[in-house]
């Protein structure tokens, strides 16, 4: 197989590398989080997919070079980051949340100002692929701020992808005791290629999903036909 070009590398790189620890996103990259960091007035938004990655934050905020976002490591219990039943416009299979009693997921929180949150909404296909919600009562411990009583998140409108009747944990977001298979982006793409376009070259399959919005929508519709929605007691929909 030929070397991947930028389109393929971006699609298959999801959810992209990120530090395991807390950091400050500024100047387009990750820097040490200052011990005196002030979180007052910022909204804690769960990064269950690529939003914990400095590279993805750079793409989202590249027109705002002065952006500074504390990104804190957190441990989420009883919930796993899995694949959503849709393809993104840049070709990746994106993330969703799934209840998984006993599991521990090692995630991040983006602490956003009002303006940064508005920009994040613009990048999250709110109303098409995601809804923005507040979730109380999650078993979530932030490395910098302790146990969280409530957190905000983007929850997939498409629901979690099912393969062979089961969700698939998102490779690249570390978790333990997940009751589901864990696949990286390349393998989930291969599995879906085999279902939706058997025999097609994997890179061609991805390029089609990027370049042909109609075909991407048709394939997504096939994936979400049997998908399962995430719900949590008290979850409040804020924007969809």
Number of DSSP-assigned strands: 11
- Average pLDDT works out at 96
Helix content range: 10-25%
CATH homologous superfamily designation? Gamma-glutamyl cyclotransferase-like
Structural class: alpha+beta
The low-confidence parts are none
Largest sheet: 9 strands, antiparallel
What is the level-2 CATH architecture name? Roll
Our Rg estimate from Cα atoms comes to 17 Å
What would the CATH topology be? Hypothetical upf0131 protein ytfp
> How widely separated are the two ends?
40 Å
**Which class in CATH terms?**
Alpha Beta
Counted by DSSP, the helix tally is: 6
Walk me through the topology.
Blueprint: H1 6-13, E1 23-26, E2 29-31, E3 43-47, H2 54-60, E4 68-87, E5 93-112, H3 114-123, E6 130-142, E7 146-156, E8 169-170, E9 175-176, E10 182-183, H4 185-196, H5 202-211, H6 213-223, E11 236-239
3D architecture notes:
The structure is a single chain. This protein has 240 residues and is of the alpha+beta class. The protein contains 6 helices and 11 strands. The protein has one domain (6-239): Hypothetical upf0131 protein ytfp (Roll), CATH 3.10.490.10. It has helices at residues 6-13, 54-60, 114-123, 185-196, 202-211, 213-223, and strands at 23-26, 29-31, 43-47, 68-87, 93-112, 130-142, 146-156, 169-170, 175-176, 182-183, 236-239. The strands form 2 sheets. Strands 1, 2, 3, 4, 5, 6, 7, 9 and 11 form a 9-stranded antiparallel beta sheet that branches. Strands 8-10 form a two-stranded parallel ribbon. Strand 1 (23-26) and strand 2 (29-31) form a beta hairpin. The longest helix is centred in the C-terminal third of the chain and has 12 residues, at 185-196. The chain is globular, with a radius of gyration of 17 Å. The model has no long low-confidence stretch (mean pLDDT 96).
